[in-house]
């Protein structure tokens, strides 16, 4: 890995950590200011749009981003915001420190422990947002193309969203237990000793 | 005195069997039979025995005395197994029935009155082609193909059936839809002929492969074109059966002008390319005189 490559990775992770932190800060500030969760979306949407990364994020953003009031005013959005900002700030800070080979143990610990609460929280939030978006997607025919057409293919975003919901439920146990296994591997006494020896 | 072997479970580290009084020319198959006698749940097809815990599975025909083992083998449970033939028939029978359901009983899928409009000729051709393709596959599974393994993990049945049945429904839904738009007649005719040629080509390769190893022998030969001109494709690719299969679905997609078919074709093309490249590599490493002009699946390109 060249020096340029490392520098890029370091910069990328620092910027993303800062970006997610700014989204979180904007959300907190807005809540303190207005006392409502109603305006959270408006206050955070631009930064949120820029700093999304995971493919999963595309789903909830599409469901939430172009759909009006009901999802934006919902507690589902709050849950997503909280879960993702905390997770991503820690994750990118962790990667940034890894680039410099000086990751503090507390960061590793948080990264592999907070998920226990944040992951179910995020999934719940996303499911709430998708569910709230469904009636609006259906009536507005968002992202949908019908027959007849020359390529004899149609796409209905409404049914895609309905199809996605059970996938969340089915894959959650597997992914959750995978994270616990990773946690055991990384935080076990043997590997912790190895880590401190390397420093 | 007889040979003896200690069998350790690769995952748990526990000794699951101590097989003794084996004959000097005993094989892996004999050890597996003895393990199955002791633990009836681990029938022979479910066992994988290796020289090392994470090593490659040993062939049933390998003799213990040739392996140079120090009296120890490692065991892995491959999970519940199902016969290959069973899987293939199940995964191909589904599409046959599912497509015909959409074609013959459209009111069930699209609602009342769906079957009232006169049907375009291409919709009939499509039903015939799709049904022919899967009927041919079932017959080949029963009468032509010779499988090297007798079983596969049962998990594969679920995965494979979802793929085949799901895509059959996906394609059938659009081609048999009341709002389906047919392409021009020339396109339909040309693509139909191309489809039939590719189906025949695919069948020709299957027959060639079946004849490559006469039953009872252990021949290993480089596949070469035979009297059938369709097999001339072997001069250019290692797996012409896959080439013809992609050609058949491409033709079907052009004939029906249906993007759903193209999506199915691309998915199949991707998977078959992976298989073809693996086979191509194995051929090259096994045969020193392997023809260098051949590529895996697409002449000169891939």
UniProtKB/TrEMBL annotation, chain A:
UniProt-annotated location(s): Endoplasmic reticulum membrane; Membrane
Look up and give the membrane topology term. Multi-pass membrane protein
Q: Which UniProt keywords apply?
A: Endoplasmic reticulum, Fatty acid biosynthesis, Fatty acid metabolism, Lipid biosynthesis, Lipid metabolism, Lyase, Membrane, Transmembrane, Transmembrane helix
Name the top EC class.
lyase
Predominant localisation class: endoplasmic reticulum
Per its UniProt record, what Pfam families does this chain match? PTPLA
Indicate whether Lyase appears among the record's keywords.
yes
Q: Does the keyword Membrane apply?
A: yes
What this protein catalyses is: (3R)-hydroxyhexadecanoyl-CoA = (2E)-hexadecenoyl-CoA + H2O; a very-long-chain (3R)-3-hydroxyacyl-CoA = a very-long-chain (2E)-enoyl-CoA + H2O
- Name the Enzyme Commission number(s) assigned to this protein: 4.2.1.134
Pathway assignment: Lipid metabolism; fatty acid biosynthesis
State which residue ranges cross the membrane: 6-28, 74-97, 109-137, 157-176
Q: Say what the protein does.
A: Catalyzes the third of the four reactions of the long-chain fatty acids elongation cycle. This endoplasmic reticulum-bound enzymatic process, allows the addition of two carbons to the chain of long- and very long-chain fatty acids/VLCFAs per cycle. This enzyme catalyzes the dehydration of the 3-hydroxyacyl-CoA intermediate into trans-2,3-enoyl-CoA, within each cycle of fatty acid elongation. Thereby, it participates to the production of VLCFAs of different chain lengths that are involved in multiple biological processes as precursors of membrane lipids and lipid mediators.
Q: Which family does it belong to?
A: Belongs to the very long-chain fatty acids dehydratase HACD family.
This chain belongs to the protein called: Very-long-chain (3R)-3-hydroxyacyl-CoA dehydratase
Print the organism lineage: Eukaryota, Metazoa, Chordata, Tunicata, Appendicularia
UniProtKB/TrEMBL annotation, chain B:
Any idea which UniProt keywords this protein has?
Endoplasmic reticulum, Fatty acid biosynthesis, Fatty acid metabolism, Lipid biosynthesis, Lipid metabolism, Membrane, NADP, Oxidoreductase, Transmembrane, Transmembrane helix
User: Its topology with respect to the membrane?
Assistant: Multi-pass membrane protein
Could you tell me where this protein is found in the cell?
Answer: Endoplasmic reticulum membrane
Any one Gene Ontology molecular-function term assigned to this protein's record: very-long-chain enoyl-CoA reductase activity
- Note the Pfam families from the entry: Steroid_dh (PF02544), TECR_N (PF21696)
EC identifiers of the protein: 1.3.1.93
List the SUPFAM superfamilies: Ubiquitin-like
Question: Which Gene Ontology cellular-component terms appear in the entry?
Answer: endoplasmic reticulum membrane
Q: In which pathway does it act?
A: Lipid metabolism; fatty acid biosynthesis
Q: Where are the transmembrane segments?
A: 82-102, 162-179, 191-209, 248-275
UniProt GO BP: very long-chain fatty acid biosynthetic process
Domain Ubiquitin-like, chain residue ranges per copy: 3-70
Q: What is its main location?
A: endoplasmic reticulum
Cross-referenced InterPro entries, in alphabetical order?
A: 3-oxo-5_a-steroid_4-DH_C, SRD5A/TECR, TECR-like_N, Ubiquitin-like_dom, Ubiquitin-like_domsf
Q: Which family does it belong to?
A: Belongs to the steroid 5-alpha reductase family.
Protein name from the UniProt record: Trans-2,3-enoyl-CoA reductase-like
């Amino acid at each position: 890995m060249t020096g340029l490559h490392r520098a890029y990775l370091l910069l990328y992770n620092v910027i993303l950590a800062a970006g997610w932190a700014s989204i979180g800060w904007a959300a907190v500030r807005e809540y303190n200011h207005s006392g409502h969760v109603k305006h959270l979306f408006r206050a955070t949407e631009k930064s949120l749009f820029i700093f999304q990364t995971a493919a999963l994020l595309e789903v909830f953003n599409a469901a939430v981003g172009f759909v009006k009031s009901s999802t934006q005013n919902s507690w589902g959005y709050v849950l997503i915001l909280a879960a993702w900002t905390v997770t991503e700030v820690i994750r990118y800070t962790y990667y940034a420190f890894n680039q410099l080979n000086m990751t503090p143990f507390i960061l590793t610990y948080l990264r592999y422990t907070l998920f226990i609460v944040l992951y179910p929280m995020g999934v719940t939030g996303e499911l709430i947002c998708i569910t709230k978006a469904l009636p609006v997607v259906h009536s507005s025919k968002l992202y949908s193309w019908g027959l007849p057409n020359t390529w004899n293919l149609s796409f209905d975003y409404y049914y895609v969203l309905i199809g996605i919901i059970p996938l969340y439920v089915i894959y959650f146990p597997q992914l959750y237990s995978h994270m616990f296994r990773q946690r055991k591997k990384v935080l076990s006494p043997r590997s912790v000793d190895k880590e401190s020896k390397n420093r | 005195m007889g040979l003896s072997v200690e069998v350790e479970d690769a995952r748990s580290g526990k000794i699951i069997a101590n097989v003794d009084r084996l004959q000097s020319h005993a094989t892996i198959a004999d050890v597996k039979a003895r393990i199955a006698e002791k633990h009836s749940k681990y029938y022979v097809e479910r066992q994988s025995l290796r020289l090392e815990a994470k090593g490659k599975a040993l062939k049933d025909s390998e003799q213990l005395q040739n392996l140079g083992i120090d009296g120890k083998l490692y065991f892995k449970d491959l999970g519940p197994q199902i016969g290959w033939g069973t899987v293939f028939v199940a995964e191909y029978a589904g599409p046959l029935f599912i497509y015909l359901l959409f074609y013959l009983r459209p009111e069930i899928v699209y609602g009342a009155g769906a079957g009232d409009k006169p049907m375009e000729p291409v919709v009939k051709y499509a039903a015939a082609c799709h049904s022919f393709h899967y009927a041919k596959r079932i017959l080949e599974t029963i009468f032509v193909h010779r499988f090297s393994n007798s079983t596969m993990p049962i998990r594969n049945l679920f995965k494979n059936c979802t793929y085949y049945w799901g895509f059959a429904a996906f394609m059938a839904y659009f081609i048999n839809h009341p709002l389906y738009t047919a392409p021009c007649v020339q396109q339909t005719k040309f693509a139909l002929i191309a489809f039939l040629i590719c189906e025949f080509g695919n069948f020709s390769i299957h027959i060639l492969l079946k004849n490559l190893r006469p039953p009872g022998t252990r021949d290993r030969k480089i596949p070469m074109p035979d009297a059938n001109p369709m097999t001339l494709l072997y001069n250019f690719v290692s797996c012409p059966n896959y080439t013809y299969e992609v050609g058949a679905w491409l033709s079907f997609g052009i004939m029906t002008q249906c993007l759903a078919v193209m999506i199915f074709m691309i998915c199949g093309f991707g998977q078959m390319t992976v298989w073809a490249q693996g086979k191509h590599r194995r051929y090259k490493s096994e045969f020193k005189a392997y023809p260098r002009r051949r590529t895996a699946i697409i002449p000169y390109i891939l």
